[in-house]
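Database export, one record per block. Field names are fixed; values are copied verbatim from the stored entry.
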Amino acid sequence: MQINLITGISGSGKSVALRAFEDSGYDCVDNLPVSLLQNLISVLENQKCEQVAVAIDARRGESIAQLPPILESLRHQHQVRVIFLNANTETLVQRFSETRRRHPLSANTKQSQSTTLIEALDKERNLLAPLQEQAHSIDTSSLTAHALRSWIQDLLKDKPLGLTVVFESFGFKKGVPSDADLVFDARCLPNPHYDKTLRPLSGNDKPVIAFLENIPAVNSMASDIIQFIEKWLPHYIADGRSYLTIAIGCTGGQHRSVYLVNRISEYFRLRKNLTELQITFLDRHRELDSIPVKAV
């Protein structure tokens, strides 16, 4: 059975992610107590279910500490993937303000005391830290709900075993993605933004691609990043990693970083020997994916 555990910080988009799994045909369970996870899997296994997604958060406090050993036990018989959704505190505070909902850990029933939202978020991060270490993390701070659904759907297309390498473009002016394992800075390269004809375009467009391909420094940086990844990728595989996020940033995340992500990920996707090692490559463009979708 393919078991997908969706967890993370409250307000980071777990409900959106779970709906994406549901839309893809998975059996989904929300807000499941940790103590019932193994019983649920046994029932679904008897019913011949092949794909399940379960959302679990830290609202029951210390019981979340039981989850890592439970997941390790389930891995002996099933394919288990953990997806950890996160966002920066400023974004989470804004989301809770907009929805006017209380954080699940904001009330301390034992002491009949309430905590501030910031204190509740800090407590939640500490409780979930052991889970985040073994999970595929997604920073939703700058993502729309539509973009998060799209990212989850892309993730479902990968192989259940092996290493998933995510190449992500971003803009430094909006911060470095918190889920990045490796970060490369492309701000030193010539910026198409200063060409009025290229400014409204992105690194996906042919005029921008042609502009950047004719710059030796761009080709040199792409080559250096590829050589670095080629050298160290076997070490990440040997380390038992399931996910590796490689973030490439420029000022706005629109031109240079998008071009480099597309070019580098295409290079690795064409490497047949890596395909044989069950390595899957995904592209993400944080700033482009975060553009609000207009209603039709």
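Remark 1: The mean pLDDT is 88.
Remark 2: The longest helix spans residues 216-238.
End of record.
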